[in-house]
Amino acid sequence: MQNLNLPVDVDPDRLAKRRSFVDRMNGRFVEGEPDDRVRSVDSFYQRAYDLVNSPQAKKAFDLREEDTKTRELYGQTTYGQGCLLARRAVEAGARFVTISKGGWDTHQQNFQRLSNQLLPELDRAYSALLTDLAQRGMLEKTLVLLMGEFGRTPRVNGRGGRDHYPRARFVCMAGGGVRGGQVIGKTDATGSEPAERPGTVEGISTTLYTCLRIDPHKVYQTPTGRPIRLASPDGQVIRELFG
Description:
By secondary structure, the protein is mainly alpha-helical. The protein has a domain at 1-53. The chain is 42% helix and 10% strand. The strands form 4 sheets. The chain has a two-stranded antiparallel ribbon with strand order 1-4. The chain has a two-stranded antiparallel sheet with strand order 2-3. Strand 5 (186-187) and strand 6 (194-196) form a beta hairpin. Helix 6 runs parallel beside helix 7. The longest helix is centred in the middle third of the chain and has 26 residues, at 110-135. It starts with 11 loop residues before the first helix and ends in a 14-residue tail after the last strand.
């Protein structure tokens, strides 16, 4: 993993000296600016040091710990192994993991790219992740969200592609206490508009916080008094997920 292991020319002793130097510099700064809010950034440096010096973190990111059968289950692709790495990170105590897969901007050759590359890779890795989490007894406490940025146009363009489309899209939720095996809402016959039980971005955010046992209506205050909402007050929880 990049940035998790020390560079070859930096051993632990040299890292300790660098940290000592930074601490001395910061000590002089604190004398002139004794503000806890300024010092709060030190917690991020501490986390970075902990990661670099942690054998447990290095082990969590070492896929050689997994047997060949498990690695094959996810697929020997960057995305597949990324999903496996996500499971290992959650096992090790990570509370939030993002797995990114690009290539969905199919303005041309949409159907070939989906059927030959994008969907087989996604289906294999996504199903493996859910199966693996369930078999390890982790799925009920792990919310898995599968989504993109927007939908695609119902009409195919002249290059055999589909363009950006904000009016209809999908979101998949699994685990985290939600009731699976459902399709909530549907579009019209052409996939152009929601026709039944439409969802909203605000509703998705509110539902996610509810799954995580976080009050979606909580409002934080910045040091200057600016209110920061976790989710829009207009968001409605998708109740069918908890029925």
